[in-house]
Design brief:
about 425 residues; 2 domains; eight-stranded mixed sheet; 15 helices; about 40% helix; binds histidyl-adenosine monophosphate
């Protein structure tokens, strides 16, 4: 039998919930405009190799979470598990480095990861992300983070905690890696299966493993900040100084390493205690080697992405609601004989940019009136046979029930003017 449920880990966003999505995107567009980011839309699938090279061969994403398939020509393609590699590829492919730098872009869209679904974790989820290429200044790191802070603040949210760390660069990280491996080696038999495997290839990941045994093992482990070279140390110091001067509350978490291989220097997360185990709402950092790993010249970069489903969970937990849906302008009531005339008026209203609806089910006047109420119409326009005969329509202002007789010929213009005044009055309130 046909399975009519959405695939596991995916959800339908129903018409009554879509208002959230419009709101989150509208506010994102305004903030990105104020911060000088432009939107980029990249394909939902990319060559598999792109993710292997960037997100990293040893990352969870590449080792077990990718939706990979062969197309008709035998190419290996992967539904994007994250946005950063595709945006980096587009930056290189379209030679954006040849334009004045930095290049600041943002994106909105679905990502796909084969993970065990739970609250705040889906197999198809949505991210809003920003990426900045071409600046290695710590102020660029601060700017991207503050763009995220501003976004949350415009949504009415102030409760997320911010963690930052620096994981160094290709110059200083090898020494740290060695120190960490030698510390963890002595405790290797207590590590979880994944971490035992990771130990040689990607020991930093042991630090953010959620398994209690691994947490115990890494307690007291050397921390990245003690191994930073002077440039990385200065970079992190400047980031902290800007965040301090902007009075952003954050904590330095020496165990924050993030799960993607491309990160260098700054890494950060914004978390919430209100949405259960999947508490990271935002994650990001600097990736100065990403473009080079794709064959380009060394180009620094920094960015973040947030999960929109998790953000909505946090907003809901704070009692924040999206702005109400725009109210219907006019509901046109007709009788069987006047339906066509009513429909032409409905269309004329819509062509004048007035939202208008009419009955399509042959309902009685009484139930049409109920429907006008249900839809929250500002005006009801009666176009019955009598109105057509006399050329005078009756208009009811739904708010207070006052009725006016208006010549049918000029009723569209009259309603458009009334609605403009109505909206201006509501804006004043
Ligand atoms: P990420 O930490 O893997 O980073 O994901 C960013 C955010 O996406 C997470 O904090 C979370 O809110 C959301 N997210 C991730 N996986 C899921 C899931 N299975 N279900 C629901 N939400 C999820 C990245 O993706 C990097 N590309 C971020 C970045 C941009 N770094 C630099 N630039």
């Amino acid at each position: 039998m046909l399975n009519t449920r959405a695939p596991r880990g995916t959800v339908d966003i129903l018409p009554h919930e879509v208002v959230w999505w419009h709101h989150l995107k509208n506010v994102a567009e305004q903030v990105c405009c104020d911060y000088g980011y432009q939107e980029i839309v990249t394909p939902l699938f990319e060559h598999t190799e792109l993710f292997v090279r960037t997100s990293g061969e040893t990352s969870d994403i590449v080792t077990r979470q990718m939706y990979t398939f062969s197309d008709g020509s035998g190419r290996s393609l992967t539904l994007r598990p994250e946005g950063t590699p595709g945006v980096g590829r587009a930056y290189l492919e379209h030679k954006m480095y040849a334009q004045p730098q930095p290049t600041k872009m943002y994106y909105f869209g679905p990502m796909f990861r084969y993970e065990r679904p739970q609250a705040g974790r889906q197999r198809q989820f949505h991210q809003f992300g920003v990426e900045v290429f071409g600046s290695d200044s710590a102020i660029a790191d601060a700017e991207t983070m503050l763009c995220g802070v501003e976004y949350l603040s415009r949504l009415g949210l102030r409760e997320l905690s911010v963690q930052v760390n620096s994981i160094g660069c290709t110059g200083c990280r090898p020494a740290y890696r060695e120190a960490l491996i030698s510390y963890l080696k002595d405790r290797a038999d207590t590590l979880c299966e994944d971490c035992s495997r990771r130990l040689a290839a990607n020991p930093l990941r042991v630090l953010d493993c959620k398994n209690d045994r691994c947490k115990d093992a890494s307690r007291g482990a050397p921390v990245t900040l003690d191994y930073l070279c002077s440039e990385c140390s200065e970079h992190f110091g400047q980031l902290r100084s800007v965040l301090d001067r902007r009075a952003i509350e954050y904590s330095v978490d020496p165990n924050l390493v993030r799960g993607l291989d491309y990160y260098t220097r700054t890494v950060f997360e914004f978390t919430s205690g209100k949405i259960g185990a999947q508490s990271a709402v935002f994650g990001g950092g600097r990736y100065d080697g990403l473009i080079e790993s794709l064959g380009g010249t060394r180009t620094p970069g920094v960015g973040w992405a947030l999960g929109l489903e998790r953000l909505i969970m946090v907003l809901r937990s704070e009692g924040i609601v999206p702005p109400p849906r725009k109210q219907l302008g006019v509901y046109i009531l007709t009788s069987g004989q006047s339906a066509e005339q009513g429909f032409l008026l409905t269309e004329e209203l819509r062509r004048s940019c007035v939202s208008a609806e009419m009955d399509l089910l042959g309902r009685s006047f009484k139930s049409q009136m109920k429907q006008a109420d249900r839809l929250g119409a500002k005006f009801a326009l009666f176009v019955g046979e009598d109105e057509i005969r006399t050329g005078q329509a009756t208009v009811r202002r739904m708010q207070d029930g006052t009725q006016t007789s208006v010549p049918l010929e000029g009723v569209v213009r009259w309603l458009a003017t009334q609605l403009t005044e109505h909206d201006a009055r509501s804006d004043d309130k």
